[in-house]
Every structure is written in C-alpha cells, then in structure tokens.
Design a protein that fits this description.
single chain; alpha+beta; endonuclease activity; globular; 38% helix; 207 residues; SNase_OB-fold_sf; two-stranded antiparallel sheet
C-alpha cells in the first residue's frame, strides 16, 4: 500500500512538472528537468525502483546464515531462521547417515556455498499455498542468487542437480529447467557423465 501511494505521488509530480514546463514554453531540456524532479521526490519519500520491482514480483528478501548441501541451506527470512528446501531440484547426497557419499555431492555443496555464502543477500520465491513447507517443516522456495540468477536453473544446467519432486502448484520455471537439464544431459556434464547414475528416483552410487 505504501509503495502504491509513492507511485501515485510520482505520477502527480511528473504531471505537474510537465504542465508547468510546457506552459512556460520550456520544452527543451524537459527530460532532464523531469528526471531531476522525479529523483528529488523519490529521495524525499524513500522510494526506489528496486523496492517496487521486488514487491511487485512477489520475491522475499533473505540472508544466508549457513550452507548445507546443494539443495538445502539456512537463511534469515523476515527475522526468522529458516531451513530452505530448494524447489524442483535434487542434488547428490553427502550428509545422510549410513549412506555412501554420492558422486558430485561435494561439488554441488561447494558450488552452493560459493554462490550463496553465509551473509549473502538473496531473494526467495516462496512455494504456493498450501504447499509452502515440506513434511520436515522446511520452507519451500525458488532461490535467486545475489546477481539475480535462478539458482535451480544454474545448477541443473551445470549438471550438479536433477529435476525432482515436481508437484503442483509448485511447478513454476519447470519448462526452463527441463531445457537446462536436456542441455546438461546431452553434454554429459557432471552427474550425467556416469551412465545409469541418474534415475527417476534419485542417484545410483553403485554406478
């Protein structure tokens, strides 16, 4: 609501500025004058285009507190420490008790820690109700790296993750991920370099 009021205020300022300038015959340089006026009003009301874009896109700000593996990490979200389970992907396992370290699991975990280290500011696209948490209580989300890259697409295209756990309504970005997975598989990248390793139910370490 606050951002909408700010937007209406900006529209009002632009309209008034335009009328004043045109009525005085000051068409030349109107763009720079309007830009200056808009900048001043933005500063006075604390408005930023980045804030508006973030709000309209439905993304939530978060800060990484601790990395875990390639598809799970911890972050501060709205003042709460949450365990985030990244939607639509599955990376090889290296922390499950009683199971062997799966090939490329450490590479996936290391990459996640590199692009989203502790303290990194990221954005989350939360899962859709009623499926916003999994049965472990972890918050489900699509994750955008600090530079704006969709993390899921990044790791799938690099061959560090497979598409998995595809359940409606949380199927946003699925087409994009399928294209990236096809690319990784056809180029035999990482997990796809071992024949038979990737299965529809997970990974087969014996391969």
């Amino acid at each position: 609501m606050k951002q909408m009021k700010n937007i209406f205020a900006l529209i009002g300022v632009i309209t008034v500025a335009y009328l004043l300038l045109t009525s005085n015959g000051q068409i030349a340089g109107i763009d720079s004058k309007l830009t200056e006026a808009v900048t001043q009003i933005e500063s006075s009301i604390g408005f930023s285009h980045q804030e508006a874009n973030s709000e309209s896109s439905g993304l939530v700000d978060a800060v990484v507190t601790r990395s875990s593996d390639g598809d799970t990490f911890h972050a501060s979200v709205n003042g709460r420490n949450e365990t985030i389970r990244i939607l639509l992907i599955d990376t090889p396992e290296d922390q499950k008790p009683g199971t062997p370290v799966e090939p490329f699991s450490r590479e996936a975990a290391a990459y996640a820690a590199r692009v989203m280290p502790a303290g990194a500011h990221i954005k989350l696209q939360l899962g859709k109700a009623p499926d916003q948490r999994d049965h472990y209580g972890r918050l489900l989300a699509y994750v955008y790296e600090p530079d704006g890259t969709l993390y899921e697409n990044d790791v799938v295209r690099r061959g560090l993750a497979r598409i998995a756990y595809v359940y409606k309504p949380n199927t946003d970005h699925l087409t994009q991920l399928e294209q990236s997975q096809s690319y990784a598989e056809s180029h035999h990248l990482k997990i796809w370099s071992i024949p038979g390793y990737v299965t529809s139910r997970g990974y087969n370490p014996s391969k």
